[in-house]
Amino acid sequence: MPDRRSFAVETPLWASEPLSRALGVPVHLKMEALQPCGSFKIRGLGRVCALRVADGARRLLCSSGGNAGLAVAYAGRRLGVPVTVVVPRSTSAWARESITAEGAEVHEHGAAWAEAHAYALSTLSEGTAYVHPFDDPEIWRGHAVMIDEAAAQLNERPGAVVVAVGGGGLLCGVLLGMQRVGWHEVPVLAVETTGAASLAAAMAADALVTLPRIDTVAGTLGAATVAAEALAWTRRHPVQSWQVSDRAAVSACERFLDDHRVLVEPACGAGLSAIYDAAPPLRTAGPVLAIVCGGAGVSLALLRGWAEATR
């Protein structure tokens, strides 16, 4: 019987003195950057891959800006099935090489994730299961486990939770987990870069909005339309949208590397920047829990390049 695990590990919860000093309240970091694939994605996507193979899939197909593709490639290798990942042109060579190193085929199509997604669906064939990178209830259930872990590790109710948002899969999983552990009224700060703020646009319109284009170095946040469930969660849980610049996201990555010796990509830096720059909604929140979502599409050379480009 194929393995039904998510292939994720229990990640540590770190108390961050540098971030606590910057914000003025205690900050705890759920270190999803330490997952085997470098990001939280393996939690939900590993779960879905195992379920699809158990149901008879002989091949896995995914579209991704990088992290989801790597998670599917990793799970596929562990499950013994071939994997194809369709990436947009915006996906870095570093991320493509990481996916290929797991044994997956990488195809490029389109300028942004939405085009890669549409193309991948058009190639779907019998015996192949398509694994969506963020919009699937099983993905959210897998991601929710990180909150089960955090609640046991923290031993207190946080005053706020900080989450970076792209397509909304992480947000949905975190909120599902928060409901499960009884954090019903704990507010969530949902952080996006200004060039990829599809959740902010949807919340302002109270309807799904498709952005005309994605313009951010945080490429893995590049979903032009957020998942419908992410918007639905904002109607039943206190969620505040927050936007940061690319420069702030990249600067947070640099500061986090200096402070914690961990390299994360700008998508993760977006959430961290709200803490480093003491976003007003967090200043009096009490203990803050931040999801350090990580990211495999980053190297020191790439980070230096983004820093130069955003100065």
Brief overview, please?
This protein has 311 residues and is of the alpha/beta class.
Write the layout of secondary structure elements.
Elements: E1 13-15, H1 17-23, E2 27-30, H2 41-54, E3 59-63, H3 67-79, E4 83-87, H4 93-101, E5 105-108, H5 113-122, E6 128-131, H6 137-154, E7 160-164, H7 169-180, E8 188-193, H8 198-205, H9 228-234, E9 239-244, H10 246-260, H11 266-276, E10 288-291, H12 300-309
Parallel strand pairs: 2-10, 3-4, 3-6, 4-5, 7-8, 7-10, 8-9
Antiparallel strand pairs: 1-2
Helix pairs in contact: 2-3, 2-6, 3-4, 6-7, 10-11
Radius of gyration: 18 Å
Approximate helicity band: 40-55%
Care to count the β-strands?
10
Strand content: 5-15%
Largest sheet: 6 strands, mixed
By secondary-structure content and strand pairing, the structural class works out as alpha/beta
Highest-level CATH class of the largest domain: Alpha Beta
SSE series:
EHEHEHEHEHEHEHEHHEHHEH
Strand order of the biggest β-sheet: 1-2-10-7-8-9
Gross geometry: globular
Overall mean pLDDT:
94
Number of helices: 12
Number of domains: 2
Identify low-pLDDT runs. none
Query: What do we call the CATH topology of the largest domain?
Result: Rossmann fold
The CATH architecture name of the largest domain reads 3-Layer(aba) Sandwich
Q: What is the CA–CA distance across the termini?
A: 52 Å
